[in-house]
Design goal:
Length: 531
């Protein structure tokens, strides 16, 4: 159980699901003075959040779907995140190429990009512009030249580690009084006078507990229908799940590209990410446990075939690992890619489930606005709570400019190597000072976990003591970027196991179980799953 996480007594709100939207609701509710508890079955940000394309964007293709409200909300939220999380969310320039494109097609795209600029009228990012072939040739030598008629550029943003964005919302919620617990499963609901009055859980030790609250909020993403059935029997199915797959390839492209697959004309991205080429995504219906989602050889082949038209050498690049996630979309018939990414807020008072509020669907870009809308309803139902301030309040690590430089300098003065400080700053931001404090108390903690990586020993202690890290994969894949190194952190594994076992008191059996969890992660991300 997390420090200070006693759940005795009565809460205003229980939030079920610690992905980015649940974390956002927890942060908003706590900052408004509500007594809340956030419950996550696995680890914060380990589901759909970790399986995302890692972009903060309005979504050009949603203009074609005429979903102007969604695009405008996400463009506004993109600007908000650039300000409240500048260490994690960075501007990214995209190119939209014209290959053998007709005048009509080029005109349509230019009008669409103009509308994109118009809908982001309050942005700080540059406007679109046309790029001639000569300029593209110098900046992107691997791009196919035959038929190229130039490109249009525009700006969106990228979040290298949405897992950390989720975690910072969790930490801010905790700093404002929210109880946060991962590794606990909701097994049922408490009912009183015809209302949902709390939840039953299986806690970290495998024991049963009851947590009473005035309201329960279901933000469990692709697990939504299963959780809903436990909270309110005979709940209607509300979620359509689709799978999105990404490939992490040996670096090929220098710029971010918006492309259309020659296989089925679906939009996909090829972007630089963590020193690699990040290629994705797919969009196919998924029926199974979201925890088991993985790329298949067919998924890998689809993405490579889509990309090789534009980057002929893509098949020569080493596939380092895959990434797969499950989107939770509001149930709607039709082709997967045509289903709206808009969210739906379900008020149990109006739907025969008093005491229950539910969030269905939504994109990572709009998580804060979705959380604000949800918390507004919660405050209304509870009759208590202040106004939302999450759009103007920086996340705990928010830092840039001279302040960021001071954080890095202090880290190096504490014995952290310069390359480590440079790599850790965009991960922790202002919270790098907390890691620096660890190293000042024990100089050995400033040492690298392994010479081939920038990560240091002190990160293990910080992750366990302050970031709710419980498992080996929590640390390697969500507290640090070790899982996203070319070899997925394999050379650091023994040192990390030793450090975590010593701090958490793992015996031989638990250490073996932790290794098995990590082996399962590596197998799931290999791209060699069943077709």
């Amino acid at each position: 159980m997390a420090k200070g996480a006693a759940t005795n007594g009565f809460f205003d709100l229980v939030i079920v699901g610690g992905g980015i939207i649940g974390a956002g609701v927890a942060r908003d509710a706590a900052r408004r003075g509500l007594r809340a508890v956030l419950l996550e079955k696995n680890d914060f940000g380990s589901g759909t959040t970790a399986g995302s394309t890692r972009l903060i964007h309005g979504g050009l293709r949603y203009l074609e779907m005429l979903d102007f409200g969604l695009v405008r909300m996400d463009l506004r939220e993109r600007e908000t995140l650039l300000h409240i999380a500048p260490h994690l969310v960075k501007p990214l320039r995209f190119h939209l190429p014209y290959f053998n494109a007709s005048w009509f097609y080029r005109t349509k795209m230019k009008i669409g990009l103009g509308l994109y600029d118009l809908l982001s009228y309050d942005k700080s990012l540059p406007n679109r512009r046309y790029v001639p072939v000569a300029e593209i040739a110098s900046s992107e030598p691997a791009l196919r030249r035959e038929g190229l008629r130039g490109a249009s550029t525009y700006y969106d943003a990228q979040v290298n580690m949405p897992e950390r964005l989720c975690l910072e919302n969790v930490l801010d919620a905790e700093q404002h009084g929210c109880t946060v617990r991962n590794g606990v499963e909701v097994t049922g609901a408490l009912h009183e006078n015809g209302r949902v009055a709390g939840v039953c859980i299986r806690n970290e030790a495998g024991e049963s507990e009851e947590i009473r609250a005035r309201l329960v909020c279901n933000t469990s993403g692709p697990w939504f229908d299963g959780v809903a059935a436990r909270l309110q029997p005979e709940s209607p199915r509300r979620v359509r799940m689709t799978k999105g797959v990404h490939l992490a390839l040996e670096p090929l492209n220098h710029e971010a590209w918006v492309l259309f697959s020659p296989v089925d004309r679906r939009l996909f991205f090829m972007i630089p990410w963590m020193g690699m080429s990040w290629l994705g995504t797919t969009d196919t219906d998924f029926d199974g446990d979201p925890a088991d989602v993985a790329a298949t050889p067919a998924d890998v082949e689809y993405l490579l075939k889509s990309a090789e038209y534009y980057f002929p050498a893509v098949r020569k690049q080493t596939l380092r690992f895959t990434n797969a996630g499950v989107r939770a979309l509001v149930t709607h018939p039709g082709k997967e890619s045509a289903v709206s990414r808009s969210h739906q807020l379900v008020d149990g008072e109006r739907q025969g489930a008093p005491g229950l509020v539910s969030v269905v669907g939504g994109k990572i870009t709009g998580y804060r606005a979705i959380a604000e809308e949800t918390t507004d309803l919660i405050v209304k139902r509870l009759g208590k709570g202040g106004a939302c301030d999450t759009a103007s309040s920086p996340l705990p690590g928010a830092v840039n400019g001279e302040a960021a430089g001071r954080c890095a300098k202090e880290a190096m003065e504490a014995g952290i190597a310069a390359d480590s400080a440079a790599a850790l700053l965009p991960l922790y931001g202002a919270r790098l000072t907390e890691l620096t404090a660890f190293c000042r108390r024990d100089a050995s903690l400033a040492e690298k976990i392994h010479p081939d990586y920038p990560e240091i020993r002190g990160q293990v202690g910080l992750a366990i003591d302050q970031e709710h890290c419980r498992n080996l994969d929590d640390f390697l894949a969500r507290r640090t970027a070790l899982a996203f190194s070319p070899d997925q952190g394999r050379k650091a594994l023994e040192a990390v196991v030793s450090l975590m076992a010593a701090r958490l008191g793992w015996d031989a059996g638990e250490t073996s179980r932790q290794r098995a969890r990590w082996d399962a992660y590596l197998s799931r991300t290999s791209g060699a799953g069943k077709a």
